[in-house]
Amino acid sequence: MGHSVPPLSDKSLLKSQAYVNGEWVDAKSGKTFEVKDPSTHQLITTMPEMNREDTLAAISAAEAALPSFRQTTGRERARMLRKWFQLMTDNADDIAKLITWENGKPLADAKGEAAYAASFFEWFAEEAPRTYGDWIPASVKGNRVYTMKEPVGVCGLITPWNFPAAMITRKIGPALAAGCTVVAKSPGETPLTAAALAELAHRAGIPKGVVNFVTALGNTAEVGETLTSSPTVRKVSFTGSTGVGRLLMSQSAATLKKLSFELGGNAPFMVFDDADLDAAVAGAIASKFRSSGQTCVCANRIYVQEGIYDAFASAFVDKVKQFKVGGGYDAGVTHGPLIHGRAVAKVQAHVDDAVAQGAALLVGGQKLPDLGANFFAPTVLRDMRPDMQLAREETFGPVAGLFPFGTEADAVRAANAPEVGLAAYVFSRDVGRVQRVAEALDFGMVGVNTGLVSDPAAPFGGVKQSGFGREGSKYGIDEFQVVKMVTMGGMGGPLQGE
């Protein structure tokens, strides 16, 4: 089934090459891979299938650019980021069209992402001049001790397809603000948004070699291993699955890199009897079904206290029945396709497993082949149990499983059971309960009476096997800096002439 694609206002933002050392380049091998529209399976364009040799060239470009770029002042870097932010804002509609084209999310969602992505450049433009050190009172008489924060060096950045713009800016923003140069591995499924950002970096006057984009789909593992094994790359920031995070961490051990990983989630969404039911339903809808459930912080397990379980399920299903699934550009569409066939198969497996073990299917539960191969109906299951696949694994699709619970302790115990701990959500009007539960949850982020926690001002990241390090916020730039201590001896004593 065809879906019309609105043309870009600025056609020069659609690129079919990678961006290295300030130039648009092909893979040295000449190989390419196809970028397809997940709604229609139609070819959009091809991109360079880069390998180790291409990646090493990008690392060399970043290494050559580092000495001069790290000497720029924070204010100079702030102006570069501010200019890049302004260009993203001016071209937000085209960026959104590219996101929808290659990722599939509805255009309204894509416009939200374009603005959110730009906000990280704005935020870190404001942080760049404010990387303060400390003056430390020394224990030794006559010594003076101070610290300064310096850029860690060349950074390798690896980002996923589910937020083709925001995951990139959330890493590049603080890296550049700190004075680092970067080699970014574009998501194989969604490299076009990254290429548009590279074009805007070029226009913003970011010096050559400071920002490099390497593209690969089949060679993704090779590119990743090149970044992790290179002694030149001093820092790797990765967003993706826990399994790949483990692999990258082991590969980085030989060179003892600084790492920050934002890995898998399995977010619990807890609704207590005293919650505002309408607000809880709206929050669960926003959290669970944003981008058709393909976000690392989307509600995966929805725990509802027994007193309002039936009422919540009924109201929740009513909202889901109002969704309109279709191509991301089509008028009125609220939810688009999944990214590829493997994602559809996983979602179907989770639904089938739950139903086979006694869960009740309230709405959805099936593929939508009339729309296209990657479409799956928004689904709600009730009477879920902790041994079902959906409870134990991140579904990453439009399936909401409702679990009943009795007490606060029951809910927290169930919420904390998985090995991951990224985001959790709590809905209650009891301020004491909110505080108790938020403190007891083993997660890096807790949303209270809201289903959306993302904000450039807020630190984003997890605990346990959801990774370490924080992105965004005042903490985000720390991940791209090292602290240098200077001790000056012989500084005390009386003034000369006294």
TrEMBL record:
One of its GO terms (cellular component) is cytoplasm. It is an enzyme of class 1 (oxidoreductase). It catalyses: succinate semialdehyde + NAD(+) + H2O = succinate + NADH + 2 H(+); succinate semialdehyde + NADP(+) + H2O = succinate + NADPH + 2 H(+). Its EC number is 1.2.1.16. One of its GO terms (biological process) is carboxylic acid biosynthetic process. It holds the Pfam family Aldedh. InterPro entries: Ald_DH/histidinol_DH, Ald_DH_C, Ald_DH_CS_CYS, Ald_DH_CS_GLU, Ald_DH_N, Aldehyde_DH_dom, Aldehyde_DH_Superfamily, Succ_semiAld_DH. One of its GO terms (molecular function) is succinate-semialdehyde dehydrogenase (NAD+) activity. Residues 24-486 form the Aldehyde dehydrogenase domain. Keywords: Oxidoreductase. The active site is at residue 262. Belongs to the aldehyde dehydrogenase family. This is Succinate-semialdehyde dehydrogenase. It comes from Lineolata rhizophorae.
